Amino acid sequence: MTDTSFDSEVSAKAADSGANASAQFQERMAAAGGRSGVIDTQRVSYLAGKVIKAINDTVLDDKVSYEEYNALKAWLIKVGEDGEWPLFLDVWLEHSVEEVANADREGSKGTIEGPYYIGGSPELSWNGTIPMRDGEPGTPLVFAGQVRSVDGRPLAGAKLELWHADDLGFYSQFAPGLPEWNLRGTWIANDDGRFEIHTLRPAPYQIPTEGACGQLIEAAGWHAWRPAHLHFKVSAPDHQLITTQLYFPGDPHNSDDIASAVKPELMLDPQDNPDAEGEITYYDFVMAPEQ
Ligand code: MBD
Ligand code: FE
């Protein structure tokens, strides 16, 4: 395979990932009963008015030209055409929404979900291995710990959903050619609330650069990197769902994540696994009761 055909294969995958994320999100919203009527008229008027005013103020304060206005217009159109609204919003806005949503929640920290979650991944026992291809590249990683309530009670039967990118930065179901549930799974904690997840250490990750978001990053002279991360949703009866991500010390992008989703509490500490090839890391999830 030549470099060129590899590049075009990679960019075809990236273009697909945007469209898939848009379609997935719309399906999920429709399944949850749609969007209309959820937010009351006064609130819509207040928030939409405030955002529109903030943009107008920027135009006036910074004397935005017709050239800049038209560049913005063309770019906004392209975000939709590329299916990159989920990517744009989750990278540059979701972190603030998450901060507001979980400001007062006790227990383990959450962070953003991002655009690539899919519910209903294969259920594994408390110490199962994530679905992966034969020869899937990456260092084996055991992720072990306990799910507890804030009062210290182990939460038997808690559910842990994990999803992460492969070594090339692709998420299954958002890039063609990967098995449906590659690097996605659901673990059920044992009677002590314990789990031992067998997976691979993820690689640093670049958000797709071929579409409108990449165009913005390049035009602004930014970078497209996120630190290597594992995504989790952890749930247990009568407790608030935790959506989070966990990171690895020493990653150069822990301090400049393009999605602003790193928190000091979300750092793992992997060590050589004395019992098997690869690494092992421990992390407990502490869950706040349902309000
Ligand atoms: C990702 O994998 C991700 O986690 C986020 C937040 C945004 C884009 C891609
Ligand atoms: Fe991710």
TrEMBL record:
Keyword Transcription: no
Enzyme Commission number, as recorded: 1.13.11.1
Domain Intradiol ring-cleavage dioxygenases intervals: 143-171
Example of a GO biological process term: catechol-containing compound metabolic process
GO molecular function: catechol 1,2-dioxygenase activity; ferric iron binding
Pfam families for this protein: Dioxygenase_C, Dioxygenase_N
Enzyme class: oxidoreductase
Keywords: Dioxygenase, Iron, Metal-binding, Oxidoreductase
Cofactor: Fe(3+)
Origin superkingdom: Bacteria
Protein family membership: Belongs to the intradiol ring-cleavage dioxygenase family.
Protein's UniProt name: Catechol 1,2-dioxygenase
